[in-house]
Write a structure and sequence with these properties.
The chain is α+β, with helices and mostly antiparallel strands. It has a single domain, classed as Alpha-Beta Plaits. It is 30% helix and 35% strand. It has 3 helices and 4 strands. The protein is globular, with a radius of gyration of 14 Å. The model has no long low-confidence stretch (mean pLDDT 92).
């Protein structure tokens, strides 16, 4: 039986899309970045995203703050990340990490 990972850290990012980018187009790239990079990182537990008319949220659960930071450090050089970052208005991005039940 596979070991169940326990989330210790939740990372929440909010952002708006760049001008001209549709939610439908971004959703495809968002799914790719999860499948090709984020979900493959050591310490990854789960990820969900959602959208409103004005913006997006990504919630990622990690086994540790170190795992979350290592993923963030590798994100910029990940092939799947370039298109993802190009479709968002990075000036609107806000991110925070929270410890779970300390």
């Amino acid at each position: 039986m596979a070991e169940t990972k326990i989330a210790q850290v939740v990372e929440i990012a909010t952002f708006e899309l760049a001008d001209g980018v549709t939610h439908e187009a971004f959703a495809i790239v968002d799914a790719q970045v999860e499948a090709e990079h984020v979900s493959l990182q050591p310490g990854f537990v789960s990820r969900e995203t959602g959208a409103t008319d004005t913006g997006w949220i990504a919630i990622v659960h990690w086994e540790s703050a170190e795992a979350a930071q290592a993923s963030m450090d590798s994100f910029g050089s990940a092939p799947a990340a370039a298109e993802f970052m190009g479709m968002m208005d990075v000036s609107t991005m806000a991110m925070a990490r929270y410890d779970i039940n300390r």
